[in-house]
Amino acid sequence: MKQHAKVAFLSHLLPVVSLILFFALLIPVATTSESALFAFIVISMIFLVIIDLFIVIWNIVKGIKVLSE
After folding, report:
1. With the C-alpha atoms ordered 10, 7, 2, 68, is the resulting torsion angle positive or negative?
2. What is the value of pTM for the model shown?
3. Model confidence over 11-39: pLDDT tens digits?
4. What is the 3-state secondary structure (H, E, C) of 1-67?
């Protein structure tokens, strides 16, 4: 159970870290052209949504496994 708690904590921490990384990278990109900024935001949001959906599905599967034990 302790191992599951560590993995669950890390899986909840990953979206927060990716969001912080997004904003950290957004600052230098914001000083470039408007089209580069738009492309960066769109690509980053798609990437973040994919990561978040994967983590939500992962947490649901792991939660069902823990509850069924």
Report:
1. positive
2. 0.73
3. 889 888 988 988 898 888 888 888 888 99
4. CHHHHHHHHHHHHHHHHHHHHHHHHHHHHHCCCHHHHHHHHHHHHHHHHHHHHHHHHHHHHHHHHHH
> What is the number of domains present in the chain?
1
Give the rounded distance of the alpha carbon of 23 from its chain centre: 13
**Which of 63, 39, 49, 60 lies closest to 18 in space, CA to CA?**
49
Range of the domain at 31: 2-68
